[in-house]
Amino acid sequence: MRKRILTALIALTVVTSGVAGVTAAETGTAAEQAQQGDGATVTFENQSTGGDQVVVDSVTVPNGGYVTIHGPSLADNDTLGSVAGTSQYLEPGTHDNVTVTLTDPVSEGSYTAMAHQETDGDRTYEFVASNGDVDGPYAADGGAVVDSATLTPSATVSMSDQPTTGDSAVVDRVVLSEGGFVTIHDATVTEDQTFESIRGTSQYLGAGVHEDVRVSLDEPVTENTTLVPMAHRDTDGDEAYTFEESNGSADVPYTTADGAVIDTAAVTVSETAMANMSNQVTGGNSVTVDSVSVPEGGFVTIHDSTLTDGETFASVRGTSTYLEAGYHTNVTVTLDSAVTNDTSLIAMPHMDTNDDQNYTFVESNGSADGPYTTDDGAVVDAADVSISASVSMDDQLSGGNTVVVDTVDMSEGGFVAVHGPTGAVVGSSEYLEAGVHEDVPVTLDERLTSSQSLVAMPHFDTDGDENYTFVESGGDADGPYVANGGPVVDSGEVVIRASIGFESQSTDGESVTVESVTLQDGGFVTIHDATLLDGETFGSIRGTSMYLPPGTSENVTITLDEPLSEDTTLIPMAHRDTDGDEAYTFEESSGNADGPYATTFAPGAVVAPAPVTVETMDGGETTEAMTEEMTGMTEGTAVGTSDSSGPGFTVIAALLAIVAAALLGARSRQ
Predict the structure, then answer these.
(1) Which of 133, 168, 419, 650 is the most exposed place for a label (fewest CB within 10 A)?
(2) pTM for this model (two decimals)
(3) Which domains does the chain have, with CATH numbers?
């Protein structure tokens, strides 16, 4: 029934009856909302994509809203499940060249750009999570305002002008829809020297986004020239680049209508080191060097301004990790002692003269690892540093309960608050001491069910109680760190593909109820017992729901295959229907089908552990041991780091490795 209603919503989207003047606070039924589309337009041209983004040429949303990309399954009346990506909130008016990040893999075919309203004022696209009740499409001429285009999976590549010693080059960003390589050609490729122009090729790169890809050049560059990075496929699936040796029959370039996917960059051959460091705001515990070139490898060292007074060693405030020979960007240097006042700092590239990859310039009294020099002396660059705080929050996949702030540097300690699209605080970290903190988990006040852009903002602890009271004090306490006339912030796109609400409950042991589950692409909820934490990936399965369609399902009762006999922790996990048969075959396929929805951070899958009490005559109660069991399954630690959040980390990471091909796939970074 729900599917028929949604199909009717899209097909009819009701009769257009003029601009209804929706304000951010107005709400209404889906039918009422769909009538308010007069003046909305969409233009969407055919294009190639690396699989991560598409560009909508133009969209007009008279009352604000979004432009949503639907996949080919929209033609099969898959209204919710066809959603492949949505823009951020767009203010009322016309917007050109709107980039939409895709959350589903792209297959060649017809995709539809659809203008959607913002009906409940939260600036979060909730059409799927609300089962079509809010944020419905704009309408015109009795139908949704749409335009269709053919998307062709391909690749994108970008490379900046840069210095080089001739032995390597750095490609800023490459996006591959199906995996492959990035090959560096010299300019003779434009003269049909297809094979002769090849200078070097990266290692195999999986499908997704890769940044700062360093390519060693087999044929070094000896003079200033233009290099041409080119994205190549892995057509034979062996993860080895054989384009040249196969005379072009294997591992061919990715192409678009304009030809091979390439970029160009001017490279300057130089054996002279360089450093570039911009003025910046920091918490005083770390700084970032924008770019540095170390022709023979080495380090970049940060000196304070006493260097100009002759304090060669005493001025050293911190040094980077070892940098291999070549060009490097965005190098973060942690300072050995914090800078507490606004000052000037000096970046200085140093050699690794003893080849031990350890910086020993100070302890050797200058006899080892000296600075790179020119005729004018040591190579340096100075920058003004303002002391406050800094924060970085990357895009991420989340289960909706927790987000992770990549790094925060605070001069006086405090908290990281996370703000939602309307500016309201949606969560805050535990108290953080002054210094640099990485992978800071922030538990959200309310579970998210839809993707949205969130803003991380460092805050002081002005009253010294180590409790975040900015909101409850009306802004009188624990205010934000500021710089350049405003708060210190960074934003990240938090993608919610699945979200589970599962509360502690009493049961007769035969079944449990999942309060709410949102699955953007449909699937199942599987109940695991706590042996999952001991490595029982399949043996821990206690029961699975029926197939759940895209959207939100509430009060999902799951009958357990084996009744519970004692109080325990149960772990519901969101699973995809990867083979499209609406039957859960994860276990019988040994993990090859119907794998879990993924998260960027531990435990790597969308889960919601909670204690379950088995009803007894004397009334069972949750034990302390049950609570301890749950600690291994909380969100928050980056998958792949050494700082796992408990025994469940290894289990889920292994589980995801089994079914990696079936997952949506978090965007990889290299």
Answers:
(1) 650
(2) 0.83
(3) 2-153 (2.60.40.2550), 155-269 (2.60.40), 274-387 (2.60.40), 389-496 (2.60.40), 498-662 (no CATH)
